[in-house]
Every structure is written in structure tokens, then in C-alpha cells.
Design brief:
heterodimer, A: about 220 residues, alpha/beta, six-stranded mixed beta sheet, 6 helices, B: about 425 residues, about 40% helix
């Protein structure tokens, strides 16, 4: 026996009521059930057994809009449609999902209010919130910009200190080599020993992980040419 | 001029101190992260989920064709068929050449990992990325991975240069051993790789035996003890193996000991959070079979299991490498070492590193000399084959060793050392 649209809506409304919620309205023309959940308004939009792609699309968009308005949004789907569209998108966007068949109704994904705190359904409230968000966004942007500038200065400072350290180390190393030569009164045709071309000199390993410190592979691998 | 050259070298080191990135593609987990992470990498599961494409997903902005990392959890409860959509790309360290979905997951995981550590500020020109693959990975895996890195470098500018090293080399580097034998035992196979300042590729010997074989015999033991229904659940079988499995020093003596001391050997395992209690009772002596089977499946006692349908590990071939089915581990090590120069062999025997979860057998203090750890067992097996100066050690924190080896390699190898296919070493620079 074919189940009518009204019967489906009634069954889903009963299911919602059995979960302890207060049904506010059953709108047969829109195929919508409104109920309240801890003071927040929730809307279940029911997709018919015979719904086509366009109908489904329209209901999902309306539910997404409901959620954006701070309401708890639900979509009720016939179970055969679930295998076609999956439920992950609903989970990600906190849109509730109820599936129904002739025998059973199940809440697969719980609907949740989207971040806006208490529901303020009027457009003016929404506009106010939007303006606040936009003002906050621009302030955050300015803070980010300042942090970025600071981090560039820090980075340049760090590099400058590094260069100074390296130059001083190098100069002091070569000075000591030179004074050693003078002390020994050895006349050499080459002032400095020839530098190994690509070898990276390992210096302080203090800030490196322990598995690098005193690892014989470091010297061995650094000689790869 | 010399000062300038020196400075260039030091700048190179300074860059690498910040931007070397390790990438270890394990069978179950992907371990990754830059040198700045310190001692341990970040770990996520080596898997990707291919969401069902639907109109609704598109409208709601879920347009990714593959999802990796923590987000995968959002999709796991979906009504879709998990087994076909949830892909674990590595099968015993190898990915099929034309397994497009698996390669897609590898690309997405790598991109995800690099993005997670994208640095801010100035001066970043891309990471020096060091990846590690199984010692038995065929050449096409290197080629595919390099192509993936090329694409990621173009798309994200996060890779400056990359290189790929075999996992046993990374383990040896992490353990600071220049000449050693690395025995890596994973879920499906075991590789023995001698190393002397580089992997000795011609000496690698592999076994077609790993943790899954130990699981198989645990399942048979459960069936014999009357828990046939539980033997079907793979994860439970693995937990039983880990909790009641023992490694005997000598199987015959261990069985004799168990028969004389049934209460001391009795195995009872309560599955946490459930009412399930597994008591092997008079079959408790079979605990010793679990560890023995990993090290040596040739004892006659295993014949009865083979006759009753447990698959016997068989010889198989992947690429150029033969994976032996029933060779014992000591014999496998000897075969690998004997492919190396004679002069080197004593050094190799004196530094054997066991790596991988398959070697985590706990000795029991009340069964001293009966139930032992992997080092003692292998040392004993090698001694019985006439080798005296053998030193076996178990990798500490084996799950991090490969990543650590990658970091050391990336830090130490000079940037001027370019990739050569003959040597399978060096840096590959990527165009952005």
C-alpha cells in the first residue's frame, strides 16, 4: 500500500515528539515540521519518496539557509536516497539527517545550531552580526599584518646576528691559525690550507635533535660529492 | 674568497637546520615533519578516503576527491561502502605501479603534511624533503614518488629538493651505526639489509613472513582452544597475540616446561572493556608457538597446522627480489651477510639491529631461559649455527627510527650532491 505524503510527515513528526521535543507546526503544503529544542527553533524539511534531483537540491539549499539563520536544520530523506548522496556533507555542516523507510525512522546525524548563540531570526540582527564580523575581520587582518612585519624584522635580526657570529668565528679562527704560523716561524707558500669544497662544517649541535649529535653518519654523508 | 665560500656552506647548514623534512611511508602510519620537531615526528594513519561524489556534497562544498588526515574520521560513519572507499596505499611497503588511487593518497598525504608545516616569514624557498621507502620497493616507486614531488612543488612551492632513501639505511643512520645489518619486520614481510656506509643492495634477503603470519597461527590456536568465533576478528587476534604470545629460547624445552608447570604458563586474557575472557587452559603451551613461528616455522609441530589448512608461507618474487617463505631468521641473516665481502662479515654480525613491531616479545621473569626477548633468541639461533661474536640489539622507539634517519640524511648530505639513478642517491631539484 502506498504511503501518502501526509502520513510520512505525521510519522516523522511523531518520531520527533517521541524524542521529547515540542512540535510547533506541521506544514503539509511546504512538507516541513517545526519543533523546539531547548528554546531554539528546529526545522525538519522532508524529501518525498518521489523527489527528483531538483527537489532534493532545493531542500538542501533551504536547510543550509535555515542553519545559516541560526536555526537547527534537519533534512528527512527516504533511505534509498542515502546510498546515492552519503551523509558526510551533512556531518561537516552540522545539518541533521533523518532517514525513513516504511518500517523505520532513524536520526543518522544530529542537527546543531551554527555558532551564532541565541537564535535571532530577524534579518536586521543578522546584518548587525555580519557588520560586526566584517569589522572584526578587518581588525584581525591589521593585527596579522603587524605580526607579519614584526616577524620579518625578527627574521632579519636573527640572520644578521648569525652572519656576525659566523664572520667573527671565521676571522678569529683564521687569526689564530696565522699567529700559530708566526709563532712557529714557519714560512709557507700557502697561507691557508685548501678548503674542502662542498663540505659543510658542523658546528654547534646543541639546538639539534639528539639523534644528530655525535652521529658518525653526519660526517660521512657530508662528504658525498 | 675562502671566507665567502665558508659562509655559503654555513648558510646552507643554517637553512637545513630549519627546513629539512622527513617523510616515512609506513604500511599503517605515515610519519612526517621537519627537523625542528625535535625527537619525534607527527603521525597520522597512512590512508585516504574517497568520498562518494554527490550533488549535495558539491553544494555544501565537499569537493575533494580524496580526504586524508584527521578529517577522514568525519566520513567513516557514512553509509557508503568503506572497504572500497578507504584506501591504505601501502601493501607490505609496495604500491602497484598502476594503482592510481593509492598514489593519489600518497600525493594528498604528502601535500597535507607539508602544508601543516608551511613556514611564515621570509627566506623560505621550499623544504629539503627526504622520503623513505621499503628496501624492496621497485624502481617505479621511486619514479612515481619523484613525479608526485614535482607536481607538489609546482602546485605549492613547498618542496625545493627531494631525495629517497631505503628504510634500513634510515634505521642504521638513526642508530648511529655505519656497518650493521638491519632486520626490519613488518606486517607482511621481513627484510634483512646489510649496510656498510651505504646499503649493500645486492645483499638484501627478504622473507615472505611478518606479523600477519603470527596472527594466523594465533587464530588457529584460538580455534583449538574453543574460541573459533573470536578468531575471525583480526584486530582481536592481534591483541591476543601481543598479550599472550611468547618467544621460546628453545621450543622443545619450552613445551616440556609448560607440560610440567601448567599453572605457571597458563594464559588468560581479559579483553579490556568487554566480558570476553580467553583462557587457553590445557592449550597454554601453544603460546610458545606464536613467537617461534616468526623466527622459525620449520619445527615439525607446525605441520599439523599446515595439514589443517593454515597457509604455509611460500616463496614469492616481487621485482628482482625473492621473498623466502620458510627460511628461519638466523639463516636469512647469514645468507645476507655471506653476500658481503668476507672482511666485512664480522663487523656486520657484531651490529645486528632488529626493527619493527614483530620483534616486541616480552621475556617473562618467572620463565627465565624459557620465554625470552628477540635479541636473546636470535643470538642463540646464530650461536647454534656456529657464530660466536654476535651482537643483536632491538631498535629503541622503532616507530620513529626511519623518520630520524631521513632527517639526519637531509641535514648532512651537501646540496651540491645531485641525484644519480646508478647510485640511487642525491638531491633532485624541483621546478616551481
Amino acid at each position: 500500500m502506498r504511503i501518502t505524503r501526509k502520513e510520512t510527515l505525521d510519522r516523522i513528526a511523531n518520531y520527533v515528539a517521541e524524542q521529547g521535543y515540542n512540535i510547533l507546526e506541521k506544514d503539509f503544503s511546504e512538507n516541513v515540521i517545526r519543533f523546539s529544542n531547548e528554546g531554539l527553533e528546529a526545522i525538519v524539511r522532508v524529501v518525498d519518496e518521489e523527489a527528483n534531483g531538483g527537489d532534493l537540491l532545493s531542500i538542501v539549499i533551504q536547510s543550509a539557509f535555515d542553519a545559516a539563520m541560526g536555526k537547527i536544520a534537519y533534512v528527512a530523506l527516504p533511505i534509498h536516497l542515502l546510498s546515492r548522496i552519503g551523509d558526510h556533507a551533512f556531518r561537516l555542516h552540522k545539518i541533521g539527517l533523518i532517514v525513513y523507510s516504511d518500517q523505520k525512522i532513524t536520526e543518522l546525524v544530529s542537527g546543531r545550531a551554527v555558532q551564532l548563540g541565541e537564535t535571532k531570526s530577524s534579518i536586521s540582527e543578522l546584518e548587525k552580526i555580519e557588520a560586526m564580523i566584517s569589522s572584526l575581520a578587518s581588525r584581525v587582518e591589521r593585527v596579522e599584518e603587524s605580526i607579519k612585519t614584526l616577524s620579518i624584522v625578527d627574521e632579519l635580526n636573527r640572520r644578521l646576528e648569525n652572519i656576525e657570529r659566523l664572520v667573527y668565528e671565521k676571522i678569529s679562527h683564521e687569526n689564530s691559525a696565522l699567529s700559530k704560523n708566526i709563532d712557529q716561524h714557519v714560512v709557507k707558500t700557502e697561507a691557508y690550507p685548501e678548503r674542502e669544497e662542498t663540505k659543510v662544517k658542523r658546528r654547534k649541535t646543541g639546538d639539534l635533535p639528539s639523534f644528530i649529535a655525535e652521529n658518525p653518519w653526519v660526517d660521512l654523508l657530508s662528504e658525498r660529492t | 674568497m675562502q671566507v665567502l665560500e665558508s659562509l655559503v656552506g654555513l648558510f646552507e647548514e643554517d637553512y637545513k637546520r630549519r627546513f629539512v623534512f622527513g617523510s616515512d611511508y609506513g604500511t599503517s602510519d605515515y610519519k612526517y615533519g621537519p627537523i625542528t620537531l625535535g625527537e619525534r615526528p607527527t603521525i597520522i594513519e597512512n590512508r585516504g578516503y574517497f568520498p562518494e561524489k554527490s550533488m549535495v556534497s558539491k553544494i555544501l562544498g565537499v569537493e575533494k576527491d580524496v580526504v586524508v588526515g584527521k578529517e577522514v574520521a568525519y566520513f567513516l560513519e557514512s553509509g557508503a561502502d568503506l572497504s572500497s572507499r578507504l584506501i591504505y596505499p601501502m601493501k607490505d611497503g609496495v604500491i602497484g605501479k598502476s594503482d592510481h588511487n593509492a598514489w593519489r593518497v600518497i600525493k594528498e598525504l604528502t601535500r597535507y603534511a607539508l602544508e601543516e608545516f608551511r613556514p611564515g616569514g621570509i627566506g623560505f624557498k621550499g623544504f629539503y624533503l627526504v622520503a623513505s621507502l621499503s628496501a624492496v620497493a621497485p624502481r617505479y616507486m621511486y619514479e612515481n614518488l619523484i613525479n608526485i614531488y614535482d607536481e607538489i612543488a609546482r602546485e605549492t612551492e613547498l618542496i625545493h629538493a627531494s631525495t629517497i632513501i631505503p628504510q634500513p639505511l634510515a634505521v642504521a643512520i638513526a642508530h648511529k651505526e655505519l656497518s650493521c645489518v638491519v632486520v626490519e619486520s613488518g606486517h607482511g614481510n621481513t627484510q634483512v639489509a646489510p649496510i656498510s656506509r651505504a646499503p649493500i643492495r645486492g645483499a638484501i634477503v627478504a622473507l615472505n613472513r611478518g606479523g600477519s603470519e603470527a596472527n594466523a597461527i594465533t587464530a588457529e590456536i584460538l580455534k583449538d582452544a574453543g574460541y573459533g568465533d573470536l578468531a575471525k576478528e583480526e584486530s582481536l587476534v592481534r591483541r591476543v597475540k601481543e598479550n599472550i604470545g611468547l618467544l621460546p629460547l628453545n621450543l622443545d624445552e619450552a613445551i616440556k616446561y609448560a607440560k610440567h608447570n601448567p599453572e605457571l604458563v597458563r594464559a588468560v586474557y581479559q579483553v579490556p572493556g568487554t566480558r570476553i575472557k580467553i583462557d587457553l587452559a590445557e592449550y597454554s603451551w601453544t603460546r610458545f608457538l606464536i613467537g617461534e613461528y616468526v623466527f622459525d616455522p620449520n619445527h615439525e609441530i607446525f605441520q599439523s597446522y599446515f595439514k589443517r589448512g593454515m597457509p604455509r608461507p611460500s616463496d614469492t618474487r616481487i621485482g628482482d627480489i625473492t621473498f623466502y617463505g620458510t627460511l628461519d631468521i638466523a639463516e636469512t641473516i647469514i645468507r645476507a651477510v655471506e653476500r658481503c665481502p668476507v672482511e666485512l662479515q664480522p663487523h656486520l654480525y657484531s651490529h645486528i639491529i632488529l626493527s619493527g613491531g614483530n620483534f616486541m616479545w616480552r621475556p617473562i621473569s618467572t620463565m627465565k631461559g624459557i620465554a625470552v626477548d628477540s635479541q636473546t633468541k636470535l643470538q642463540n639461533m646464530l650461536r647454534n649455527k656456529g657464530l660466536e661474536n654476535v651482537n643483536v640489539k632491538l631498535s629503541t622507539e622503532p616507530q620513529y627510527a626511519v623518520w630520524r634517519g631521513c632527517i639526519v640524511y637531509g641535514y648532512a648530505v651537501p646540496t651540491s650532491y645531485r641525484w644519480e639513478w646508478e647510485k640511487m642517491e642525491g638531491w633532485i631539484y624541483h621546478e616551481k
